[in-house]
Predict the structure.
Amino acid sequence: MIGDLRGELDAELAAIREAGTFKTERAITSAQGAHITIEGRDGEVINLCANDYLGLANHPDVLAAAHDALDRWGFGVASVRFICGTLELHTQLEAALTAFLGTEETILYPSCFDANGGLFETLLTDEDAVISDALNHASIIDGIRLCKAKRLRYANGDMDELELRLKEAEGSRRVLIATDGVFSMDGYIADLPAICDLAERFGAMVMVDDSHAVGVLGAHGRGSPEHHGVTERIDIVTGTFGKELGGGGGGYTSGRREIVRLLRQRSRPYLFSNSITPVVAAGSLRSLELLTASTELVDRLRANTRLFRSLMADTGVEVRAGEGPIVPVMIGDEQRLAPITAAAFAEGLHVVGFSYPVVPLGTARIRTQVSAAHSEDDLRFAADVFARVAGGRAPA
Ligand code: PLP
């Protein structure tokens, strides 16, 4: 019986509201895209906060592949992979990812959260050590919590501290360095060459979560290893289909074949949870094929990012410096977030405030994300709105 607990939980919720960190959700009433409609407002708004970096969530080819898959493969698989839930479509998607990323083998997961959740405890025991960047995604943090290895942390991107941690880990049977390829709250790109240099010096493996980098970084959109020219030196890449590759959901781990094969035997979210549905697998595969065939979308994303960053610089509104399509508008005080995002929404721009526990207290921000699907007008409009609602000046 819930009894008095209701009162206690209500008090917790009230405290979250008071701190300005209460998260509300607005229901979208259209398909995902650069222009959407949202409940409570007439007409379209510009959407500047989706992970749909390449505009594939609603691409006609992706929709067609998903429709065909429904007819050919049906709706559900009703089984985990090793019982009777492996469709040819799953193995095709795994092979296509391996070829695209330039790795040795790939295993699909229900999500990247699960890929990260099922990685560390499979590979590492209490004889081992894992060294993690302090800004790594929650799923890496939780995955590491599930394993018994010695846990060490270094400040974001601090290679001197990583070296110290590697020295601390000496004597461990296996050492694994874990990092995001692109840190999702700041848009920073990990210094993979320096990480690989240290890993090789100390005999450690390197794992990169490239959820925000595949389709975004590298000449062909193959992610942060391609961007840095270190593809051969990375042991494990995890990623998602929930963002650039159509956004349908699902994740993967790709890398050294022995690691992937062990995951298939032992990784709990793989063994005990259904894989992605045929519709999602087919849409993701088509997204990957589009990305493999041409760099057009990646190039457009890059041009849009340059434009938006320069427009925002003109407004004088503070954004995190960087080169990627994650452009966090820094607000600081949590209490300022809601009035600014509400004012932007009233003007026709959909953006969302990020506050604790997603980012540290006092560093509240509006994470904007540029897409290849945005037009130049969309981006000019967005920068103009920020100039008005966040205390900047109108861009030139
Ligand atoms: N890793 C990173 C860096 C992410 O940003 C996300 C999504 O927020 C995930 C993992 C989880 O991805 P998924 O939605 O596939 O679980």
